[in-house]
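ingest -> validate -> predict -> emit
validate: passed (alphabet ok, no gaps, 137 aa)
predict: started
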Amino acid sequence: MEVVNAVYPSREQFEEFFAIGDDGPYVMVNLLKFKDRAEYPDDPESTLSGRDAYEIYGVEVSKIVESRGGRIVFSGDVTGMIVGEVEDQWDAVALAEYPSKAAFQEMMMSPEWAAIEHHRVAGLAGQLNIRTVSRET
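emit:
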């Protein structure tokens, strides 16, 4: 299995994610890899770590998620693996619950998100975002 971290989805991934189909509540699993040092194009002398830059984003994005009816379910550091192998482990995991794809898209298109997204980009070396839905038993 090849693993490719990215900061943005490809056009195909974006279109597939928002295509007509399943909707309703889901949890997004975010596997996060941080840069050693944050990279701000307008502040190349920044001394923030990638993790610090992402934490600025994280505090603010959690408010935006909640304002759209979602919530941050879990956020924590990766401390090890017992099964499987990857060349380079992720640094952190965050689980965010959204009421629908429409709420997620609304968040991503909001001026509030646009105002903080640069911290996300400055801090992330890459990530995986995995949409999950509950199986009803």
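The radius of gyration is 15 Å.
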